[in-house]
Each structure stands twice: as C-alpha cells, then as structure tokens.
C-alpha cells in the first residue's frame, strides 16, 4: 500500500537565535520534538541520571509501601511478587527480587500462565497464595483493573500493593497502596514509566531506606533490567525513561546479570561495541517474551535472577529454542489472518479462529496494523472463551473502544494503542465484532487510515556528511517518542542498481553526486520484491531515508538507508533543504 510522506512544517525563524549552536537540520529535529530551548535540547542530548531520575518518595503511597514491607520483613511474613508474563513484568519482578533478597524479605514470585490464566490477578491464584501463607502481594505491571480480585484478596487477609502503569479503565481497586505514575490524583512528576520502571522506583526507595545494606551503587546495576522493561513496553523515551534507557544500555554492556549475559551471547550482542535500543527490542525482548508465549514466563524470570552460570546457559538455550517455535507458529497465524482481513473495508480489521493460541495474537496484530495502516484485533480462544489482542494507531484509542463494549466482556485492559480482552461466554463473537466495527466507524475518519511516514525535513545530497551523522548520534537512544530521524531527498538520479545480500533480496542504488563527480551509495533493505523491476538507471526518484554509520571490519562509513521511494516521471527542480 502506498504511503503518505508527512513532512513536518519548518521551524520558526525565532529558533535560529535560540539554537544557533546547533546545525539547522538538528534545529528542525529539535522543533519537531518540542525541544524549543537550548537547555531543553542539551538535556535531551545529555540526559543526567542524577537530575532526570526522580526521587521515588515522590509517589504518594511510597512511604506507606515501605512501612508495610518493613513490617513484613521484621515479622517474617510471606511476600508474593505477582508479575505480568511479558518482558516488562518479568524484568520488573527480577528487579524487585534482587532488592528483596538483599534486605532479607521472605518472598516468592508468581507469574500467571499466559494461556490458562490470562492477564492480571485471578481468584484461583489468590486463593492458592493465601493458603500458602502470603500476607503481602505486590503486583508488577498489572492490578489496576483488578478491583474485584483485590477485594477478594483483602477478604483472605492479604494486603495488596499495586504497581502498574496501565490505564484505569474501571473502578479503582481497594488496594493497601498503589504506585502508578499516571493515576488520576498521583503527584509523581514523570507519568511515562512502564511496569518495570515503577518496580525500579520501588527498588530505589528500598535502597534509600536501607542504605547501610546497599553500599555498592546497587540501583545502577538494576538499570539493565529497567532499560529492557522500558524498551519492551515501548516506553516514551523522554524524561526519566530516557535516562533509564540511556544509562541502562551502558550497564547492559557491563552487566553482572548472568542470565542477561547468556541472552546477549546467544543473540550475538555480547561483544558488540555499542548496543542500541533497537538491538534490545529485536534480539533480547523476543527471547524473554518467548517464555510466556510458548510455555511459562517462569523460565525467563528464573534466567534473569540466576546466579549459576550453568543454569543460566541452559535456560537461555531453552528460550532460544522456544523463540524459534514462536516464530514458526506466529507466521502460520499471520498468513491465515492476513487472508481474512485482506479485502475488508472496515476501519478496524478483525480476524478470528478458535484454534489460535492467545499468546501469539498481539504479535500478529502488530504486524497486520503496520501492513494495512489500520487498527487490528486478532481473536482466538482461552479456556473455551473468545479472547484476543488488539493494536491501534494514535487516532483510535483501542482501550477506550473496549470500554464502550464492556457489557460484552468478561475482562479487558490496556493502553491507547494496545489492549487485551476476553468475551463473556454468552456473547456471540460475530455480534461483538459487528459492534466493535460500528464503534470504530463512528470514531475514525476513513481518510485518516492511510499509512504514513513521518519525515523530519527535506535534505540534499550535500547535507549527507559524517558531521550530520555525528549530530544524529547524539539524539540516541531512539525509540517511542524519539524515532530515528527520516529525511526526504527529492529528484536524485539513479546511475546504477544491483541486488545485494546473502539472498539477493536487498538493493544497492548508486546515485549521482550533484557535481557529477562520483556516486553516493544507497541501501534499500528488502527492496527487491517491490522495486527491482521498476528502478532503471537514468530515472529520477524521491526517497525517504535514514542515516547512520555502517561499521564493517573496523571501517566506518555513512550509510544511506532507503525507507520508501517514489519514482518521478521527469527530473524536476531540486527541493529545498533544511540546511538552506
């Protein structure tokens, strides 16, 4: 499907004086990100752990939480960490486990089975934990939507501490305390923390309280897991999250976590000179998530708290094997779901099959959303009930749409752009789908449902220099809220095109320099399938590109990576540039 290139408007002239220390292209990027002062841009480029990472005691209920945990520690009460089964929750559980172990809290960890139990607290698990002696239950990355289950825990004599970041879609739970940055009425200054990030704040508070026990910069050594949590949950990389990820990536390369070291080893990242957020998202997060998707999240949790190198190696290999199976099964579901939604005119695309395991549906929904540029829901079955995962674009609040259909739902929860749900037994799946499609039709302007590529600004070939790439490197880490910058080149002339790569599915495009002397090499990954026949030497085209360094055997060069192409019928006057 052809994509619309959405070019940001030029920054106002007044910014030139404020940001005169920075190149014009960097000024434009800063403006696009709302960084309109030198101080703001300096802080963004140089996040400070001491300044950006807030005092955990700013959470309204943090002191109350610390007091309850101190009582549990001193009275030797059983504390249970109840964590979600994805990478965010698993890493959060590992963070808190390491802090509890150091101060002598008696604790265990409970991660629900993704397929059998589903998301969040459930009565049976609470019943079992109560019978085993749990007196304090701390949720990680869940709980805010479990008012009834928490009331039941209270009845069984369990004090529940909720740490979460998901939207409050129903009545507030009667918890002993709640740590939730974006909860209405919460005064904690940074609202964008993920589940593992909130767990990190609790660990920080414990470290402050028991300073005589934590003498070795303990919180810094937890940043590797906090960074993985944030990257895994698409945490916006601004404010506190930005510092957690920036410094967490540094800690990852020095990590003392045996399990993480084994994951880095089997994914080929262990000896890499520099590990980026994208490396973690593409190679580490899927391995951690594979545990809960294919078997049980306990495998990943045990790996991340392991102090035994042999055990860690075996667990990492198990996750690697499970991830291979996950990829194969996901591909099968994707292909079947693709056929179901291919010609759908609806504003939300919905595919269903009772044989699909719910553990893999979110991955498929994300792929199809990116493919079609529409919100997507994929529905399978869990314990005989229809259940699914949905992913959405910013224009459609998927969790709110489910709230409007709550009378049909046994449970639901999530974010503006990601949600999960289970239907009541008596609800017709086809009626539910029709109702949801009606909600989407009334909320979405179909003209807005066109895949877009956000472009920072126009550039010319002469702008593409090592100096510009060096400036772009200062904007790392890239991720949610701070995507890798994309630029528009207009009317470049193709001199030569050739297939490249092990399987010949990538393209190498040689573009003539403006002065006629030499070429600039472009790389178009996976470009053969769509463009190999269409691109001919001598033609002019426009391209959306990304810039970075390609490092190979110690040699570094600027790499121009093509994201999308539009062929021109004739060469037009060259476009303007943000560099003037």
Brief overview:
The chain has 580 residues and is α/β, with parallel strands linked by helices. It has helices at residues 14-18, 24-32, 38-45, 49-52, 62-75, 87-103, 123-131, 147-155, 195-209, 223-232, 239-252, 258-266, 277-294, 298-305, 309-341, 361-372, 398-403, 429-443, 466-473, 528-531, and strands spanning 4-7, 78-83, 107-110, 134-140, 159-163, 177-179, 349-352, 376-382, 385-391, 409-414, 418-423, 452-455, 457-459, 487-500, 506-512, 519-524, 540-552, 555-567. The protein is globular and about 80 Å long.
Keyphrases for this structure?
580 residues; OB fold (Dihydrolipoamide Acetyltransferase, E2P); Diaminopimelate Epimerase, Chain A, domain 1; 5-stranded parallel sheet; alpha/beta; 5-stranded mixed sheet; 39% helix; inorganic pyrophosphatase (n-terminal core); globular; 20 helices
Provide a descriptive summary of the structure in words.
The chain contains 20 helices and 18 strands. It is α/β, with parallel strands linked by helices and 580 residues long. Helix 10 packs across helix 11 and helix 13 (277-294) crosses helix 14. It has 3 domains: 4-45 and 453-567, OB fold (Dihydrolipoamide Acetyltransferase, E2P) (Beta Barrel), CATH 2.40.50; 52-245, inorganic pyrophosphatase (n-terminal core), CATH 3.90.1640; 342-448, Diaminopimelate Epimerase, Chain A, domain 1, CATH 3.10.310. The chain is globular, with a radius of gyration of 25 Å. Strand 14 (487-500) and strand 15 form a beta hairpin. The strands form 4 sheets. Strands 3-2-4-5-6 form a 5-stranded parallel sheet, sandwiched between helices. Strands 7-8-9-11-10 form a 5-stranded mixed sheet. The protein has a 5-stranded mixed beta barrel with strand order 14-15-16-18-17. It has helices at 14-18, 24-32, 38-45, 49-52, 62-75, 87-103, 123-131, 147-155, 195-209, 223-232, 239-252, 258-266, 277-294, 298-305, 309-341, 361-372, 398-403, 429-443, 466-473, 528-531, and strands at 4-7, 78-83, 107-110, 134-140, 159-163, 177-179, 349-352, 376-382, 385-391, 409-414, 418-423, 452-455, 457-459, 487-500, 506-512, 519-524, 540-552, 555-567. The relative contact order is 0.10.
């Amino acid at each position: 499907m052809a994509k619309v290139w959405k070019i940001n408007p030029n920054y106002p002239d007044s910014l030139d004086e404020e940001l005169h220390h920075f190149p014009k292209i960097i000024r434009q990027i800063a403006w696009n990100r709302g960084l309109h002062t030198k101080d703001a841009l300096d802080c963004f480029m140089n996040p400070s752990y001491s300044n950006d990472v807030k005092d955990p005691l700013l959470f309204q209920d943090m002191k109350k939480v610390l007091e309850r945990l101190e009582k549990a520690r001193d009275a030797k009460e059983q504390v249970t960490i109840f964590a979600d089964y994805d990478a965010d929750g698993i890493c959060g559980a590992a963070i808190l486990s390491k802090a509890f172990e150091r101060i002598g809290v008696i604790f265990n960890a409970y991660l629900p089975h993704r397929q059998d139990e589903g998301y969040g607290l459930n009565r049976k698990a609470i019943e079992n934990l109560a019978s085993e002696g749990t007196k304090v239950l701390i949720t990680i990355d869940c709980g805010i939507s479990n008012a009834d289950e928490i009331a039941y825990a209270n009845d069984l004599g369990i004090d529940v501490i909720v740490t979460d970041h998901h939207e409050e879609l129903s009545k507030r739970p009667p918890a002993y305390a709640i740590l939730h940055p974006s909860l209405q009425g919460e005064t904690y200054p940074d609202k964008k923390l993920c589940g593992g990030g909130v767990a990190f704040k609790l660990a920080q508070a414990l470290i402050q309280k028991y300073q005589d026990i934590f003498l070795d910069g303990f919180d810094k050594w937890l940043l590797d897991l906090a960074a993985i949590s944030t990257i895994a949950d698409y945490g916006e990389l601004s404010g506190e999250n930005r510092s957690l990820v920036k410094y967490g990536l540094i800690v990852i390369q020095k990590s003392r976590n045996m399990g993480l070291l084994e994951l880095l080893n089997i994914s080929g990242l262990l000896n890499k000179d520099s590990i980026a957020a994208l490396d973690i998202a593409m190679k580490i997060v899927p391995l951690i998530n594979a545990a809960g998707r294919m078997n049980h999240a306990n495998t990943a949790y045990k790996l991340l708290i392991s102090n035994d190198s042999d055990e860690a190696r075996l667990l990492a290999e198990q996750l690697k094997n499970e991830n291979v199976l996950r990829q194969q099964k996901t591909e099968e579901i994707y292909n079947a779901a693709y056929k179901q939604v291919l010609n759908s005119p609806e504003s939300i695309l919905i595919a269903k099959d009772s044989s699909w395991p719910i553990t893999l549906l979110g991955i498929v929904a994300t792929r199809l959303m990116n493919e079609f540029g529409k919100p997507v829901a994929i529905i399978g079955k869990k314990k005989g009930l229809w259940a699914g995962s949905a992913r959405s674009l910013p224009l459609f609040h998927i969790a709110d749409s489910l709230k409007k259909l709550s009378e049909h739902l046994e449970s639901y929860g999530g974010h503006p752009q990601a949600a999960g749900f289970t239907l009541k037994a008596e609800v017709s799946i086809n009626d539910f789908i029709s109702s949801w499609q009606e909600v989407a039709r009334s909320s979405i302007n179909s003209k807005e449902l066109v895949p877009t590529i956000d472009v920072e600004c126009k550039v010319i070939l002469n702008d593409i220099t090592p100096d510009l790439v060096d400036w772009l490197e200062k904007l790392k880490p890239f991720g949610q809220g701070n995507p890798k910058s994309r630029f528009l080149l207009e009317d470049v002339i193709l001199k030569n095109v050739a297939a490249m790569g092990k399987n010949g599915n990538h393209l190498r495009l040689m573009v003539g320099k403006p002065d006629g002397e030499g070429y600039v090499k472009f790389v178009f990954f996976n470009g053969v399938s769509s463009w190999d026949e269409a691109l001919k030497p001598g033609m002019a085209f426009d391209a959306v590109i990304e810039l970075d360094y390609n490092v190979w055997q110690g040699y570094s060069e600027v790499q121009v990576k093509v994201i999308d192409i539009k062929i021109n019928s004739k060469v037009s006057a060259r476009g303007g540039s943000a560099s003037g």
